[in-house]
């Protein structure tokens, strides 16, 4: 499937992030950084062109985090797109740090307060549309971490609150403390461990943002996926994304890539409609 000429990301309909509405095909900006999600990309100009092309294709939701680079993804988004066009929604995350390139949770309220201020500065925003707690920190009470984010919301630094890498129990706990508008967990054709979290989000009408929607490529190697793709004249990646969109009305995939060709391929999946037979084959 070739990318359509007019706003193909709109083809899958929309989903709400609180008071905001976005097409159900977003863009994950993790890979506009260097290898291993560390440092600068090999071609900064190409990374900025990729982001601009995403908007041309009708994408209005960009997902990033202060840990991507660290900081590089947020900086490049601002360099490429600021002043931001009306309707663009940027979601970022905090609470995961990168000591020695590893990934280390830090849910201390003082860290989250500083992280929010840092993201505001790098993204050149007065208010962050969606701020997601990147991962619970086992050393810090969950309610304390959320309290710092809620405090930033009350002060006008963030508009909406999302969660990432949480269980149903944690979602329920958070929902008693703040208004949760999204959950971002790992989920794809091969890894459905968060099926219960997705079901809870679907029931609540909360957007579910699957990270690694293509399983870092691993989800694309199955024979059944290739057979469905061949029937549609599509790529396995397009079918994997179309399956996510068909699986729940609150699904908001954010496939990331470093090339415009793959970006256009991914966005075109929004127009792919799978049959009942296809869905049964992929169940």
Question: Notable features of this structure?
Answer:
seven-stranded parallel β-sheet, TIM Barrel, alpha/beta, two-stranded antiparallel ribbon, 283 residues, disordered N terminus, single chain
Task: Work out the number of β strands.
Answer: 11
SS class: alpha/beta
Distance between the termini: 23 Å
How many individual helices?
Answer: 10
**CATH level 1 name:** Alpha Beta
Give the overall shape: globular
Strand content: 15-25%
Strand order of the largest sheet: 3-4-5-8-9-10-11
**Architecture per CATH nomenclature, i.e. the level-2 architecture:** Alpha-Beta Barrel
- Poorly predicted regions are 1-5
How big is the Rg?
18 Å
CATH topology: TIM Barrel
Approximate helicity band: 25-40%
The CATH superfamily bears the name NADP-dependent oxidoreductase domain
What does this structure look like?
The chain has 283 residues and is an alpha/beta fold. It has a single domain (8-282), classed as Alpha-Beta Barrel (TIM Barrel). Helix content is 38%, strand content 17%. It is built from ten helices and eleven strands. The protein has helices at residues 44-56, 72-81, 109-123, 142-154, 168-175, 195-204, 223-232, 236-247, 260-268, 276-282, and strands at 14-17, 20-23, 27-28, 61-63, 89-94, 96-97, 104-105, 128-133, 158-164, 180-186, 207-211. The strands form three sheets. It has a seven-stranded parallel β-sheet with strand order 3-4-5-8-9-10-11, covered by helices on one side. It has a two-stranded antiparallel ribbon with strand order 1-2. A two-stranded antiparallel ribbon has the order 6-7. Strand 10, helix 6 (195-204) and strand 11 (207-211) form a beta-alpha-beta unit. Helix 1 crosses helix 2 (72-81), helix 3 (109-123) crosses helix 4 (142-154) and helix 7 (223-232) packs across helix 8 (236-247). The longest helix has 15 residues, at 109-123. It starts with 13 loop residues before the first strand and ends with a helix. Residues 1-5 have low confidence and may be disordered.
């Amino acid at each position: 499937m070739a990318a359509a000429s007019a706003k193909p990301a709109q083809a899958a309909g929309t989903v709400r992030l609180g008071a905001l509405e976005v097409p159900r095909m977003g863009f994950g900006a993790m890979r506009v950084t260097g290898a291993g999600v560390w440092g600068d990309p090999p071609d900064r100009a190409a990374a900025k062109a990729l982001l601009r092309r995403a908007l041309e294709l009708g994408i209005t939701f960009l997902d990033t985090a202060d840990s991507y680079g660290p900081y590089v993804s947020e900086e490049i988004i601002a360099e490429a797109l600021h002043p931001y066009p009306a309707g663009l929604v940027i979601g970022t995350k905090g609470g995961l740090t990168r000591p020695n390139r590893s990934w280390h949770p830090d849910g201390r309220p003082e860290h989250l307060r500083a992280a929010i201020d840092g993201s505001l500065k790098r993204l050149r925003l007065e208010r962050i549309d969606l701020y997601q707690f990147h991962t619970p920190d086992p050393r810090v009470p969950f309610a304390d971490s959320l309290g710092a984010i809620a405090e930033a919301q009350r002060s006008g630094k963030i508009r909406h609150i999302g969660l990432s890498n949480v269980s149903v129990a944690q979602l329920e706990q958070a929902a008693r403390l703040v208004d949760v508008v999204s959950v971002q967990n790992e989920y794809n054709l091969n890894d459905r461990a968060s099926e219960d979290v997705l079901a809870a989000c679907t029931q609540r009408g909360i957007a579910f943002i699957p990270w690694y929607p293509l399983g870092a490529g691993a989800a694309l190697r199955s024979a059944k996926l290739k057979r469905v793709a061949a029937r549609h004249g599509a790529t396995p990646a397009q079918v994997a994304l179309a399956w996510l969109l068909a699986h729940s009305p609150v699904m908001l995939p954010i496939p990331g890539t470093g090339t415009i060709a793959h970006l256009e391929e991914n966005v075109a999946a929004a127009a792919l409609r799978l049959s009942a037979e296809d869905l049964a084959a992929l169940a």
